[in-house]
């Protein structure tokens, strides 16, 4: 692969915060990031129904640590109408008996559709429908795009999704300042106020700030204030160039809604100065140097448990700031071999996406071309303090919102959501708290700027019918949520078999077969390979990818409902 193409890949996405370019291997019948999302086909999902009943399930509510069941869930149109407790010894035929459609999920589990606070599409020239289907296949029913696509595409898909015209999660459209309008870059307070006013009347739900753009603290301050007046949400990636002007605690004082990633947190905890010392020759534009420097910040900060540590968290709590940790997207920093070798990559990662992930000084997020064991050890130390920060904030009542930043650094759409749940668990949240962090918590974060109550994110009467139906209890094993499932011993045969995966995802009342969605994605990968996309892949780096020698893990078979409803376990 030539560096010229890498440069083009990088340049192509600078405006939208994405990186996408049609590869030279593109074929007429292979979708790309630039193509419109195709309409929902006749065989893609069933419903919504006048009355749908899900029988005999145990329910993870998504808020308040509640687990209930067994119950029958009655859905009318796109709303949950009733949740009816049932006696495990009750007859199989029970009210209501006038449903248009029933799902026998006896002994299975339902949780709220996952809500992702930090998403993109289009990386590696992947079409939006590729991301949408992977998300739905993993029970993700709402995504907060930051940005999910260029403004016009995001608005178009947002509206089409609400009308059930495309196969997609609910889309919450956050845009970066200046996106979508024709007024130019945001380089003054006047333009900042004008763009927010424009955004509020043109389909934008919130603002995603970076710290390395033409705008700085004065413009950010104006935009946060104007967003608050107009019911728009705000989130910020505190890119290092902003540190002389702004860190996370200062953004919280301005009224910022969410701090996404780790940037800005530890800069608020420095013992002296506004930035920590860097190695000689450090250049922010050199991503390998940038990410090496990230992990060394903890050598210059106040430690966990110190008065300064507690004061920082207490101030963020008082200012009602949400933390969106996005642990999973940076896993390559602490274990590169692990993320390269994940067993879903061969079957479900597009070759163009794998090509984009190859190490390169030019492509964003491909910084690990000379990554060493010393770098990984440094990142493992950093992660321990980052875990502690998130855990401590949760313990004092701060809101943690689960997000994935997918499409970068081997972090594959949908699969990344389950990895993030596992990482939240590793940070000290309970399994139940982790699921709530990526359902009810994010839904509340999205609703707060408008002063509304969430309409999704929990399994309760009156809420949208956005649900994931699961054959196994995720509170006992989150790995059963991966589309490729997890390996279990069959005691009767002594064989290892794969079990798990979401069985059905219900989005806005439409029932999707999650296994079929995964099969659709596998077909997209096959089509791109058939069109010649593997020609650009470096064989020395592709052993575990879609163009390597492994066929990867397949899709576990569907599970049969249990003979009788089971009493829920909290795991």
From TrEMBL:
Write out the biased-composition intervals (Low complexity): 553-563
Query: Domain of life, per the record?
Result: Bacteria
Recorded hits in InterPro entries, A to Z, give: Metal-dep_hydrolase_composite, Metal_Hydrolase, Metallo-dep_Hydrolase, TAT_signal
> In its keyword annotation, does this UniProt entry include Signal?
yes
Entry keyword set: Signal
Look up the signal peptide feature and give its range. 1-28
Region annotated Disordered, chain positions: 545-571
Q: What is this protein called?
A: Imidazolonepropionase
> From what organism does this protein derive?
Nonomuraea marmarensis
């Amino acid at each position: 692969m030539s560096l010229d193409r890498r440069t083009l890949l990088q340049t192509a996405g600078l405006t939208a915060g994405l990186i996408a370019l049609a590869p030279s291997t593109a074929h007429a019948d292979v979708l790309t990031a630039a193509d419109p999302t195709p309409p929902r086909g006749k065989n893609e999902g069933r419903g919504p129904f006048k009355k749908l009943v899900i029988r005999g399930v145990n329910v993870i509510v998504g808020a308040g640590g509640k687990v209930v069941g067994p119950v029958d869930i009655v859905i009318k149109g796109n709303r949950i109408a009733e949740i009816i407790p049932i006696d495990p010894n009750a007859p199989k035929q029970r009210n209501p008996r006038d449903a248009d459609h029933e799902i026998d999920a006896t002994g299975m589990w339902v949780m709220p559709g996952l809500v992702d606070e930090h998403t993109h599409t289009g990386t590696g020239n992947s079409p939006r429908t590729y991301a949408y289907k992977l998300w739905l296949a993993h029970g993700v029913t709402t995504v907060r795009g930051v940005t999910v696509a260029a403004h016009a595409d995001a608005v178009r898909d947002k509206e089409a999704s609400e009308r059930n015209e495309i196969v997609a999660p609910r889309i919450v459209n956050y845009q970066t300042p200046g996106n979508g309008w024709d007024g130019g870059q945001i380089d003054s307070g006047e333009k900042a106020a004008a763009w927010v006013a424009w955004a509020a009347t043109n389909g934008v739900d919130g603002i995603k700030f970076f710290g390395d753009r033409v705008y700085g603290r004065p413009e950010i301050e104006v935009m946060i204030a104007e967003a608050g007046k107009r019911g728009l949400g705000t989130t910020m990636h505190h890119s290092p160039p902003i540190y002389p002007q702004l860190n996370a605690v200062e953004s919280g004082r301005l009224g910022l809604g969410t701090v996404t990633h780790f940037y800005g947190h530890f800069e608020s905890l420095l013992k002296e100065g506004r930035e920590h010392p860097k190695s000689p020759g450090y250049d922010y534009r050199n991503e390998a140097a940038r990410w090496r420097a990230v992990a060394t910040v903890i050598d210059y900060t106040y430690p966990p448990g110190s008065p300064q540590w507690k004061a920082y968290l207490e101030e963020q709590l008082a200012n009602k700031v949400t933390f969106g940790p996005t642990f999973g997207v940076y896993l390559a920093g602490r274990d590169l071999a692990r993320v390269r070798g994940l067993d879903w990559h061969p079957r479900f990662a597009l070759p163009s996406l794998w090509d984009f992930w190859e190490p390169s000084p030019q492509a964003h997020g491909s910084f690990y071309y000379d990554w060493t064991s010393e770098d990984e050890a440094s990142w493992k130390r950093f992660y321990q303090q980052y875990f502690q920060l998130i855990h401590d904030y949760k313990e004092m009542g701060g809101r943690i919102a689960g997000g994935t930043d997918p499409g970068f650094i081997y972090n594959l759409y949908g699969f990344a959501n389950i990895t993030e749940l596992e990482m939240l668990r590793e940070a000290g949240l309970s399994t139940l708290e982790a699921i709530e962090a990526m359902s009810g918590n994010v839904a509340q974060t999205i609703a707060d700027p408008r002063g509304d109550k969430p309409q999704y994110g929990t399994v309760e009467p009156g809420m949208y019918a956005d649900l994931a139906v699961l054959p196994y209890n995720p509170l006992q094993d989150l790995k059963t949520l991966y589309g490729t499932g997890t390996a279990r011993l069959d005691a009767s045969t002594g064989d290892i078999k794969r079990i798990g995966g979401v069985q059905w995802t219900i989005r806005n009342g439409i029932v999707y077969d999650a296994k079929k969605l995964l099969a659709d994605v596998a077909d997209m990968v096959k089509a791109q390979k058939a069109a010649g996309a593997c020609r650009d892949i470096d064989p020395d780096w592709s052993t575990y990818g879609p163009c390597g020698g492994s066929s990867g893990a397949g899709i576990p078979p569907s599970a049969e409902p249990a003979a009788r409803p089971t009493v829920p376990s909290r795991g």
